[in-house]
Structure formats: structure tokens, C-alpha cells
Amino acid sequence: xxxxxxxxxxxxQKRWDDERLFxxxxxxxxxxxxxxxxxxxxxGRIHMGHVRVYTIGDLIARxxxxxxxxxxxxxGWDAFGLPxxxxxxxxxxxxxxWTYENIDFMRQQLKELGIxxxxxxxxxxxTPDYYRWEQLFFLWMIKDGLxxxxxxxxxxxxxxxxxxxxxxxxxxxxxxxxxxxxxxxRELDQxxxxxxxxxxxxxxxxxxxxxxxxxxxxxxxxxWIGRSEGAEIDFPLPGGGKITVFTTRPxxxxxxxxxxxxxxxxxxxxxxxxxxxxxxxxxxVERVARQDRIARxxxxxxxxxxxxxxxxxxxxxxxxxxxxAANFVLYDYGTGAVMAVPAHDQRDFEFAKxxxxxxxxxxxxxxxxxxxxxxxxxxxxxxxxxSGPFTGKDSEEGKRDITRHFEExxxxxxxxxxxxxxxxxxxxxxxxxxxxxxxxxxxGIVPVxxxxxxxxxxxxxxxxxxxxxxxxxxxxxxxxxxxxxxxxARRETDTFDTFxxxxxxxxxxxxxKNGLEPLDPAKMKAWMPVDQYVGGVEHACxxxxxxxxxxxxxxxxxxxxxxxxxxRLLSQGMVCMATQECPKHGxxxxxxxxxxxxxxxxxxxxxxxxxxxxxKSKRNVVEPSALVERxxxxxxxxxxxxxxxxxxxxDWSEQGVEGAFRFLGRAYRLVAQRQKAVSAASRQAGDSGxxxxxxxxxxxxxxxxxxxxxxxxxxxxxxxxAIMEMVNFLYLVEDxxxxxxxxxxxxxxxxxxxxxxxxxxxxxxxxxxxEKIGCEGMACRQPWPEADDDMARAEEILVVVQINxxxxxxxxxxxxxxxxxxxxxxxNDPRVREYTEGKTLKKLVYVPRKLVSxxxx
RNA sequence: GCGAGAGUGGCGGAAUGGCAGACGCGCCGGACUUAGGAUCCGGUGGGCAACCAUGAGGGUUCAACUCCCUCCUCUCGCACCA
Length: 857
Known about the structure:
Blueprint: H1 5-18, E1 32-37, H2 48-66, E2 70-72, H3 82-91, H4 95-112, H5 128-143, E3 147-157, E4 162-164, E5 184-193, H6 199-204, H7 206-209, H8 215-225, E6 227-236, E7 242-247, E8 258-261, H9 266-275, H10 278-289, H11 293-297, E9 305-313, E10 320-326, E11 337-340, H12 346-354, E12 363-364, E13 383-384, H13 395-409, E14 412-418, E15 423-424, E16 426-427, E17 437-440, E18 444-447, H14 470-473, H15 475-478, E19 479-481, E20 488-491, E21 495-496, H16 505-508, H17 521-527, E22 532-536, H18 542-556, E23 569-572, E24 575-582, E25 586-587, E26 607-613, H19 624-631, H20 633-642, E27 650-651, H21 654-673, H22 675-680, H23 690-713, H24 716-731, H25 735-739, H26 744-758, H27 763-772, H28 789-792, E28 796-803, E29 806-814, H29 819-828, H30 830-836, E30 841-847, E31 851-856
The chain binds one RNA strand through helix 8, helix 11, strand 15, strand 16 and strand 26.
């Protein structure tokens, strides 16, 4: 009677596989349900975060299948990316080999977990069969003017002779490989996608998503897109030309007493040259270029700047104002230049104080300000002052009037500005999808003709530790004839950002083998949108916005169907575990610490730190394979779902896992021990009254609760609790009752319902026990049982009584007692009388079927 | 810094305006047993009590873990990690 997970799980995984149970045919024979989890990067092995997300997705997929849907539940590999190249650097393994080996290993791990995927739709994004289509999309985007080139600055390591990702730059601004080499900024021509063209639609789409997406994710996206309304205003240069700025406060232009420009702005050095200030300005610009971006946007950043030597004219006051280069102005936001209004912008105020610049108050709040005495900027609304014909107006009105004034004079215009920037997609990397363009000396940039796609990444390149991108060194690959003039030309050696691949993989799953076109629109129409998407909150802004953008673009090209790709989103929390640190040996893996909490290497007491996100670097990780081997996949799955609701962080606990294992063993023994009695029992569980009725009430109440928790609340931990309670209840049923014809039909029903409810959580165990009690087929293929409302309904209700806010009594009443009946029961209750005796009843609140609240004098 | 979250027994959590602590872990006790770190049964927030308890302080309400304000602590994201 012992619960042996290993044998059970192997047996059922094989059967599911042999019967191709989770294969999803293209043609629909039932309503469709597309359940998708964010696909993994093949980093080497599955980690607990994967176990969590795939378990959640599988629960939903299995539940919906039982609910009668035809479920599409695919998996694949987000297979291009930096870690493969880092591994190549460290171990000399070729990125392709490393990636494919990892995929094979991780596929096996996923199969061991018993996740119900349609493996026939699996693909890896690093294969030409996949990426050829995104090369095609890119050519379309060039034609549609959505992809364009622009200079942008990047992290550069002189030693590596290559561009570095932000994560490859150390905190002190040195290279992650060469910690003596400072990382510099270098300007390169890059490809950008015009995602900002869709900014308004991405924002408006939130209306459609509200309800299906967590509100906090929508909020984060809204802030990421960052729509702000204002005006673009031209500030003329004395020698001709102009500088355009964006401001949300056109009402304060009269107070603009200087201008600040991003140090990277090309005009900065131009002004400096003309004014003979080249040396000091260049020094400043180079210093700022070394500051990292996060620091540069923080409010406590020391505001620094330098006078460029140039001036421009405030278009309203007509005065010449100095132009500064300032570290807090960003080149890629707005126009890279801002008008500085020190009286009404805190950053400008700090800057003006530091460099003794003129402060001019042009908005007066209730309590009058003076530029001499103010200690911080006033950023609120007010009455306009010192503003020529606009003086005295309300500042809100002033925004509109001044914008109109500029529009009439043709030197400014109302403008909506987004914080969202166009998406830079060029990567100077080898392990990515080649950007399909050719650089010709004569014709410039020439897209690779569609008929020549795919541009295949040469996987047979010797991946050495040479400097720079190996692609650029592969002469035989880069040297091509220009498709336009035939002259010798060179392929682009940059590859796509890997977010490119993850922006449309969910569409390709619907049509993964199509060799003629990227996607079949009819299939898209049949299967999109994704009904449930599950993934980590860390993707709230980037991946999810890019994917929504791609989908809208493909819709505009007539390929995709609908406006939004993901109808519902569940963003699960992280998996955390306590860290353990040895005073001598640093972070310790759990298996490096003995039962007494001592380091197994040196015997020193290990310090237990607070729970943090599982990570290799802190060694606070649990290997899923070890877990599956010891307890089985069902235990791993059950614990992941039981330890916390999906959206919250989950604290890993070995003891908690034991508990989950124990519960499964308990359920196994309960059923296995009653196997004979249950299979012999009649299936006609009528309403016989007595104990049988009690059993049926518990069954149907549990079923109602579990169904609601899964389907509506997405709280799997409480669903499991309810199932546990039911098991506890069934343990108290006596031997005779399992045999008795009075009660055994109800108990048989209870066991069957129990196994069906367990099936999406612990599918192997459920199928095994289903077979044991002599039921046909498999539990996972049965329809989800329907709760009988008559049975589930309570016959008696408990009404609690509060007197002056304190709980004083409880009464039980018939479930359909009227308010009058309950009131009189309450008022006649001896405990209530004790507290109300001699007092006047000021108020009585009745919450139907729950509570009576009495207020006395 | 900006943005988004979280804070409840010894621990994970439950309760989304209506009995605070469901369920699980741990702990305590009992049964079975040659044995128990297996299994089964029971108990378990604090306080002798009145009562007190949901990070701290205030507010709204008949009623606040839940709503509002102020503060503290922690976590995640910030555009080349995926």
C-alpha cells in the first residue's frame, strides 16, 4: 500500500505519450482554448521557477480539457541569446552545440514533470525554419517605414572590441571580462522599430485587457509608455537655425532663463568649438558618458553641467539665454534639449542655484513667491505672472493659449510625447538571427530580396575567443554580391535582439510546420487569441509590450487576427529560498550543509539569511530533478501550487514538500485500502439521508469550492486545502460504512470526484487510482464533475451577533429563515439579552445569512 | 530616483468590509509497534482572566487584515539578461 511515485509516474507518462493524448489537431471538434506559458531560455537545466510556471499552465490546460475544451498547450525554446555566447567564452563550447544539448536535457526534465504539452508543435527559435519568417517580417517593416536606422550610443569594451550588454558592465563601469578596462560609450548606426507609432493603440488596448490582466501590469505598462501632453517649441539661434524643445509646461516659457542639452547632442560640441571652449566641454561630455543611465535619471543625482558657449532666444521674452550641457538631460527622450524654467522645475532650480543662473517666477500660487527667497521650485498650477499679454491668466488656460499662440506664429505646436522609445533591435552578437540586409558601397543599404531568405546563420563557424563578433570575421559569409548593382558588397553582421523571436512565437505554435508562409491567417482566426498566458512579472513591460506591438503590426499586414494577443494574463511570483552562508566558504548549496546547520566542508556554523529569489550565484537553489527523483513529479507540482497563490512569491521549504508528499501518500492509501469496496459499490448515489447524505454534502461542497477556486479565483492553494479537508473527512469514515449498501454509493461518488479534482494537480496519481478502483479510461480524460447545488447548499446557517462592535453570540438558524425570524431569535438570545438589558437599541444591522450587529446606548 | 508590489501565529499561508489564523509545516499528547524520523487519532496565536493581537501611527464605518491619509521595512522592473 505504499505510495511509490516513481513507478506510477513512468507508467502514466508512457501511456499518455503512446496514446498521443495531448496532441491538439488543427481542426476543432470542441471550443478552443489556447493555454500558453512563456517559453524557456535553454540555459541548461530546469529551475524551480520553470517548475512553478509550467505547473500552473498545466493545471489550467488539464482543467480546461476536462471542461470540454480542445486545448492547445504548446512548448518550445527561446534559443538565441547571450548566455550561449558566454558559455562559449568560458568553456569553449560552440553556442549551437551548447544550446541544442541544453534543449535535449531540459525537454527530458519537462517530460518527467508530466506537463501535458503537444510536443509535436515544439520548435527552437534558433532554427532557420523559424527565424526565416522574422527576417521576412523585417523586410516588410523596412518597406512600411516601421524599421529605420539611427545612431545610438552603446557600451563598448576596447579590450573585447565589442559592444557589451548592460549586464556585462560591472558596477564600477568596467568590463565583466576585463575588470581593469573602463567601458566607454560608442556611437553606432542601429536598426530601430517604430513602436511609438503604436503607442496610443498600445495604451488604448488596455481597455480591452482590463479584467483579464492584473491591474498592476497594466499600470506598469501605462507608465512605461508614459504619454504626456505638451508642446514642441522652437527657440531660434541668433546666427540662424533653431533648437526645438518639448515641454509639458508651455505656460512657463516666459520663465525659461536658460537651456539644457544632453551632452551627447551634436550641437553641444559645435557651440563649444565656435566659442573656443572645446577642451573643457569635451572633458565634461566624456565624463557624463561614463555615468550609467539609471543614475542619470535619478532625482538625487548631483546636477552637473557646463556652459557650451552658445545662446538661443526665448521666443516669448526675446531675450538671449545661455545653452548648457547637463547630465540629467537624455539624448533619446524628446528632442534631447529642454528649456530650463528654474522657478517651476526642481531639477532646473537646483541647476540654476549651482551655476548662479537667473530665476524668474512666472506662475504665482496663492501665497506669492519671489525668486530671491524661494528655496525650491514651485511645480503646481497658479496665476501667470510676468508673462506679457498672458499675465493674470490661470496656468491651465495659459498652456492652451500659449500653445495656440505658437501655432499661429508657426514656431511651436501641441504635441503628445511618449516616454516609450522606439525599439533598438541591432545586436553586435553572433548567436542571434541575422539581420537580412546588405551594405553596398554604391547602393547603400539593400534589403536581401525575399527570394534569398533565409539568411542562414553559419553555425559551423569556429567559435573562438577572438575579439569581436565572429560573424564579422567570417569573410566567406559576409562577402556577397549587391542584389541591386551586383558589385561586391557585405552582409550586415548584426543580429536581432532576442525579444524579436519571443514577439511572435505564440502565433507560430498555431502553424509550426508551415513552410510556405509564416502563418496561415485562417488558423490564426480559429485559434487566437491566447486564452490564458502565464509568465513572470519581470516581463511586464518589455516582452509583453513588444509582443503586443508585433501582433498589431501583423494584424495590419493581414496575418494575425484580433487586436490583442493575450486575453488573460497570469503573472506568477518568484520562487525564493533562504540563503545559507558559511563564514569561511561563503554561500552554500542546501546539500553542502548538514542537518545541524554546519558547513560540511569545515564544520563551521552556517548563517541562515532571509529568503531570496533562487539563484545559482547565492546557491539557494533546489534541483527539480533531484526533487522529482526523491518525491515524484506529483509532489513537486502539488507543492508549487499549494505553497502560495500563483501571483505571490513562493517560499521554498523542504518541510513543505514533505507535507505535500505526505498528503499524496495519504490520498493514495485512502483509496488503495478501499479499492475493493469502492469498485464493488453501486454508482447510484441517491439521496438516502443519514451518513450517505452527509458524505454527498461534503463531496459537492468541496467540488463547488475547488471548481470556483480554479476557474474564477485562480487560487490553487485554497483549492488544494479543500481537497485535503475532504480527504481528512473520508479518513474518519468507518470501515463498515465503506461496505454498507446504504453509504457505499455515496462514498464511491466521493472517491471518484476526489480523483477527478486531483487530476489536474497530481495527474499521475489520479490516473493510477482511477484505474485501481476499476473505472474506465483515464481520470485526465473524464469530464469535470458538476456540483449538485441541492447537495452543496447549507441546511443551517450560523449567524454571528456583534454588540457595539464586539462579537457576543452566535445562533444557528434554518437556511431559509426570514430576516424577521432571525431578528427575533437574536433579540431573545440569552447572551444577547445579557448585553442589551436596560439599554436602548439604537441600531440593528442585518447582513443576510451572516451577521447581526447591534448598537446600544 | 521613478514605477509596481508585499508586510497576518514559531514558519508558508487563509479570510477582499461581516466569527482573524482555513489548510499545511513545526511543536505537544495519545494509539499501534521490538523500534519509529512510518502510519492513524487529538491538541496547538498571546494572556489566569476581563481582554489583547494582522509592520507603526491616525481616520472613515454598526463593523477594517480588507477602504483613506502619514510613516517604516523588504522585493521586483527601469529599455543590450531573458
